[in-house]
UniProtKB/TrEMBL annotation:
Species whose genome carries this gene: Methylobacterium goesingense
Domain annotation Rieske: ranges: 9-104
Protein name as catalogued: Nitrite reductase/ring-hydroxylating ferredoxin subunit
InterPro entries found in the cross-reference section: Rieske_2Fe-2S, Rieske_2Fe-2S_sf
Highest taxon of source: Bacteria
The entry's keywords: 2Fe-2S, Iron, Iron-sulfur, Metal-binding
One of the Pfam families matching this protein, by short name: Rieske
Species lineage: Bacteria, Pseudomonadati, Pseudomonadota, Alphaproteobacteria, Hyphomicrobiales
């Protein structure tokens, strides 16, 4: 029998991010950040996979999330790290913007 997969989790109203590009949230015991890149919003793990820096203190520019500690950056489409770094990709989850608010589906 296949393991049941959890459904989407409600994050809050669509205005949750306000005018910020990066907002920390806690979802099901996980520390995540919501990152707005233009009109798209993604959820990402909050700790950098390199040395655990707090990515909520980073910045988002041109489709990339930049780590505040070492300036490595992550592609917000697939989590891949910028050239010259050799550690795993950033874990991302899609965020759906619905009339009733923001929803994330965690793997």
């Amino acid at each position: 029998m296949a393991e049941a997969r959890p459904g989407p989790t409600y994050l809050g109203p669509a205005s949750l991010l306000g005018d910020r590009a990066i907002t920390p949230v806690r979802v099901g015991g996980r520390q995540l950040i919501l990152v707005r890149d233009g009109t798209r919003i993604v959820a990402a793990e909050r700790a950098c996979p390199h040395e655990g820096a707090d990515l909520s203190l980073g910045r988002c520019a041109a489709g990339r999330l930049h780590c505040p500690r070492h300036q490595a950056s992550f592609d917000l489409r697939d989590g891949s790290v910028s050239p010259g770094w050799s550690f795993r990709a950033l874990r991302l989850s899609p965020v759906a913007v619905r009339p009733d608010g923001l929803w994330v589906s965690l793997a």
